[in-house]
Write a structure and sequence with these properties.
Structural class: alpha/beta
Order of helices and strands: EEHEHEEEHEEEE
Shape: globular
Bound molecules: guanosine-5'-monophosphate
Largest sheet: 6 strands, mixed
Number of helices: 3
Number of domains: 1
CATH architecture: 3-Layer(aba) Sandwich
Strand order of the largest sheet: 5-4-3-6-7-8
Helix content: 10-25%
Number of strands: 10
Strand content: 35-45%
Length: 175
């Protein structure tokens, strides 16, 4: 599959991703019984993950979005900019931040700091993917889809320079 100007190959099939999301959805359903949960998807990358994950959660939850940017091309810039912040309405609620992928951890560090200022009752993190060999942070990923190698991936919400977010499988750069 050519995305923009690079060749990618299938890394995780859609069915593998869905099986894992089903398990995460069941865990979240158990953990948040009787609670006031709001899941906050981090745009743009988490839109497909959140959209599928929330359908495996058997509770009437609240959904919201925030927008952050750190990647340019296939490299993390190290700087994380807030484009749309967290809503004040999360005060006193149990928040689950929903991220597409944790790489260096700069993004989840920044957004956890930002969200704590809004005084939620609790904060947990759900991430579809983690690159454990790159992650430098100490913040635990409470609901993790899958660990992957340190390779650039695209599809299932993740882009390469804006392209490929719609692909239902996850692809890896074919080097
Ligand atoms: P971090 O701040 O943890 O270094 O990077 C997190 C953000 O970088 C993710 O939310 C995602 O947008 C982007 N990112 C990290 N690794 C990849 C990757 O392999 N592919 C794509 N498309 N984006 C990535």
């Amino acid at each position: 599959m050519i995305v923009k100007d690079k060749r990618f190959k299938v890394y995780l099939e859609a069915s593998t991703i869905q099986q894992r999301l089903k398990v995460l959805g069941q865990q979240i359903t158990q953990d948040y019984q009787g609670k006031n949960v709001v899941m906050v998807g981090i745009l743009n990358g988490a839109f497909m993950f959140l959209s599928d994950l929330c359908r495996y959660i058997d509770l009437p939850i609240e959904l919201s979005f925030a927008k952050y940017k750190s990647y340019q091309g296939t490299e993390s810039t190290g700087k994380v900019a807030e484009l749309i912040g967290f809503d004040d309405s999360i005060r006193g609620k149990d928040v689950v931040i929903v991220e597409d992928i944790v790489d260096t951890g700069n993004t989840i560090k920044k957004l956890t700091e930002d969200i704590v200022r809004k005084e939620p009752a609790s904060v947990k993190i759900a991430a579809l993917l983690l690159k454990p060999s790159v992650y430098k942070g100490s913040i635990p990923i409470d609901y993790l889809g899958l660990e992957i190698e340190n390779r650039f991936v695209v599809g299932y919400g993740l882009d390469y320079d804006g392209f490929g977010r719609n692909l239902k499988d996850l692809y890896v750069l074919d080097e």
